[in-house]
Amino acid sequence: MSTGAPPRDRRRARVRVHGTVQGVGFRPYVFRLAGELSLGGFVLNDAHGVVAEVEGAGDAVEAFLARLGCEAPPLAVLERVVCEERAPCGESAFAIRPSPRGETPDAPVTPDTAVCDDCLRELRDPGDRRFRYPFINCTNCGPRFTIVRGIPYDRPLTTMAGFGMCDACHAEYADPTNRRFHAQPNACPACGPSVSLLEPGGCPVASTGTTDVVAHAAAAVRGGAIVAVKGVGGYHLACRADDERAVAALRARKHREDKPFALMAASIAAARSLVVLGEPEAELLGAAQRPIVLAVRRPGVAVAAAVAPGTPELGVMLPYSPLHHLLLADAGVALVMTSGNVSDEPIAYRDDDARARLAGIADLFLAHDRPIETRTDDSVVRVATVAGRRRATFLRRSRGYVPAGLALPASGTSRPLLACGAELKSTFCVAKGGRAWVSHHIGDLENYETLCSFTDGIDHFQRLFAIAPEVVAHDLHPEYLSTKYALERDGVQLVGVQHHHAHLAACLAEHGETDAAVGAIFDGTGYGTDGSVWGGEFLVGDLRTFKRAGTLVAVPMPGGAAAIRQPWRMACAWLWAAHGGPPDLPASLRGLVAPRAWRQVGQLVQSGAMSPPTTSMGRLFDAVAALSGIRAEVTFEGQAAIELEAACDDCDSGTYPLPVSDIGGMAVIDPRPAIQAVARDAGARVAPGVIAARFHRGVARATVTVCERLAAANGVDRIVLSGGVFQNRRLLESVSAGLDCAGLRVLVPERLPVNDGGIAYGQAAVAAALQETR
């Protein structure tokens, strides 16, 4: 940044700072830094970030520029700093100036952030006026996205509008030297929101003060009760994690048979007593975003078996709101902290709706009167080793990360656009000027309630980012509710984006890549350009175009969507394909599948009726899980594959064959020999863990082989691994290690989920790139 000016000459510099620098205390930070260095000038927010001009001794200006980035507030993310020399004008005082009127900020809202250490010290200090106040916050922490109703991000346009600040809070808010300067949710017990403990019918249980209310709720949890807790982005359902009866009751009432529950531990040390934490996992747990982190559970840990059946991992998070901290401290034990909903419904966040929907589940409601504007589920991450580096991979990107923007490789000349995403793990994306904002996790677009959440979210993002879409991108599947929504938008240009191309494009765009790459895109289902069900695809392409260069052998998907819920159907289809005729019911499935049902599904396979052809890698994993006796039917999406991965025996070194052939210029992986081997081993009572390990190794080797061939044939060295199947850490690590050994550069999604949660961003990247070419 230095311009070579003599260090002691008087100097004036204008600095423009791009990035996450609004609503994070950056202006008061600049004010304090300038004051410390005896500099005059000003700082203000404008449409693109923060602008400051500083004037004074040359060495002081140089020190300001050197320290500006490295000492920035914890929530600030500086993407670019541009410095220009200006003529000194003799200004000696420094001021925070008001923002220019008539401009719309590029990023007016920042994500919700876990309560900071300074606020926690006050929360725990009996002498502080905010002692045990569940809504303590400052410029460095607290709710943002979930309380915003409109722009600009000022208190009147948040859900704090109904709480007028007392004199003490307003003095903090107006003081540039105070860490609560312009903290929009600033409040205290005298003027802010309050917490209450209610019966399911809405009657108060305790009204003797905040401390007693939270302590009462904690005592109820310790005694085995299920408590609905209103958090930052919605309601959780909480119970003791070590109480088998309480966890079983929660499963029964919530109608959630097997899907794992998340846990909340009071501290990193408490989390370490539950799971094995490496340095990356510990950093993620303690980060300001506070995601759920998947990690291997410790043997003999005091966690009910019903918390996470069928998997060696537990999903653990730390408290992120002051209310959570109080509840965990008072309870004294780790708690199940799962989404407040029934089965596959969206998380409850409105108070009346929560009491109506959760009354049959929760024994008590720990609620508060600060409204939530946007429901936001917890984010979920795990750590995997990719190309020799341990890194976080998202399974769900939501609270704590949204609505942080992502760049689009397009130059920014494309028109404002909306991308509607897919059906499962739905998100949407809005974009303009080379910047994209991917939504919070919406859920699976399979019911009216989730569709309403989807459409409401789009309306909210359009207001927040002042985007009126002229281009709308969507999946090719005509029956996706997201596609139907896109097709019903009036006055827009529609851009259909093939599902697996969107996966490829999302990863390329995230990494700023515009050149072609080979993509191994493995998932459950995706509508192909030929109208069939794709899912085990090798693409060669960039942001604009692609060609399908490889795939799995196709087999019928008997019963269509029924085969997703009943993996044994795919076992029947693959056995038929492997043996060239109707298979007998395997011993591993006897007692789990009725012989008559097996014969009926075999007839569907033979006739092709209600059995669309599929190349799905996800359905292949389902078939092997069923044949090995691990899982014949599932209660949640991906369950069979998750349990197949969990079963793998690390002591076995065998590999099943999945040969690769060139058929019509396309590389085709043939799993039929592997299926024959699986059936043979299962019939010989080989342990399911051995079968699982051999299958994983075989798939990984075949994938590496195809990627190497396609990279050489197309003159590229970049390989993208994406799609929901690559949530499988064993497969991801094996394939990436093989590609790394082959000298190929491996790209995987890092800032977005590898599953369909990244589809919308990929659609936006394709649509923006296509606009560039016109």
Describe this structure in words.
It is a single chain. The chain has 774 residues and is α/β, with parallel strands linked by helices. It is built from 22 helices and 31 strands. The strands form five sheets. The chain has an eleven-stranded mixed β-sheet with strand order 7-6-14-8-9-13-10-12-11-15-16, sandwiched between helices. Strands 28-29-25-24-23-30-31 form a seven-stranded mixed β-sheet, sandwiched between helices. A six-stranded mixed β-sheet has the order 17-20-19-18-21-22, sandwiched between helices. Strand 2 and strand 3 (49-57) form a beta hairpin. The longest helix has 27 residues, at 688-714. The protein is globular.
Features:
31 strands, 22 helices, 21% strand, single chain, alpha/beta, eleven-stranded mixed sheet
Show unreliable segments. Answer: 1-7
Beta content: 15-25%
- As a whole number of angstroms, the C-alpha radius of gyration is 28 Å
Helical content class = 25-40%
Main β-sheet: number of strands, strand sense, barrel status? 11 strands, mixed
- Biggest sheet strand line-up: 7-6-14-8-9-13-10-12-11-15-16
How would you describe the shape?
globular
- Structural class comes to alpha/beta
Distance between the termini: 38 Å
Number of helices: 22
The tally of beta strands, per DSSP, is 31
Q: For the residues shown, what is the average pLDDT? A: 94
